[in-house]
Amino acid sequence: MKTELAVAVAYTDSIDSEQAKKIAKKWQFEYIGDVAAIAKRADLAYVLQVHEQALELRKLDEPKLGAIKVDLVAGAAAHRRKFGGGRGQDIAKAVGLKHGFTPHVLDATAGLGRDAFVLASLGCQLTLMERMPVVAALLDDGLARAQLNVDVQDIANNMALIHASSIDNMSLANQPDVVYLDPMYPHREKSAAVKKEMRIFQSLVGEDLDADALLAPALALAKYRVVVKRPSYAPPLADKKPSMSIKMKKNRFDVYVNQAIPKV
Questions:
Q1: Which residue of 140, 147, 188, 258 has the lowest C-beta tally within 10 Å?
Q2: Is 166 annotated as a binding residue?
Q3: Was 131 annotated as part of a binding site?
Q4: Which positions in this protein are listed as binding S-adenosyl-L-methionine (predicted)?
């Protein structure tokens, strides 16, 4: 994980100025008002901007990358919610969703919340933990917008965010049945969308060099199992052999079983 780079909060339209001020205060970032102010701020690496009531992150030295935000209502999240395959999805199998068993899942490396949202849409109670303030602010904003949307508010209301380091504070999550881990790993992926997001994220967060330290507290906390998402070419987390793996085209889920899931 990198040391924190210079980030400030701004708005693109003055109608969102109060929202931008509240976000800056909540997450303890500098507030610079109109986003045009970045022209005089060579010290800033990123801006968190409120644009059309949504918080977005821009990497200032690579403007062509555009902005990223958490959108749990439209786009890829909506498509996956409607057509993703329900409980037949590999992620559902990995966490043990079956015949009436719907676990409380701690997503201890929440990121932009996509996998957590999928699990919540399948009925799971989700606790999300994210240590990077910039990422947590984006996720918090995306969840707040989703809670106002009639199509997904029931799902979003089943997701609670904790801003903390999972390595030190995993036990803040109240008795999860399953702990889900998806630590940052160098991506070979070349698609434009992943490239854009990963370039912004890896420059901000760096690789999770301490990711191996997540497995022991996860195994100690999870009632039934720990699920680790890995690129297909990556070694197991902490070089610990899983109980089983679910292999996909580019990734796999390594599953570490503490005890069998009850037959409901």
A1: 188
A2: yes
A3: yes
A4: 114-115, 130-131, 165-166, 182
The answer on whether 130 is annotated among ligand-binding residues is yes
Residue 165, marked binder: yes
Specify the length of the chain in residues: 264
What is the predicted pLDDT for the residue at 98? 78
Tell whether residue 203 is among the known ligand binding residues.
Answer: no
Q: What pTM was computed for the model?
A: 0.92
Domains and CATH numbers, the chain: 7-68 (3.40.1630.10), 75-257 (3.40.50.150)
pLDDT digits (tens, 9 = 90+) for 167-207: 999 999 989 999 999 998 766 655 555 567 777 877 887 76
Do the annotations mark residue 62 as ligand-binding?
Answer: no
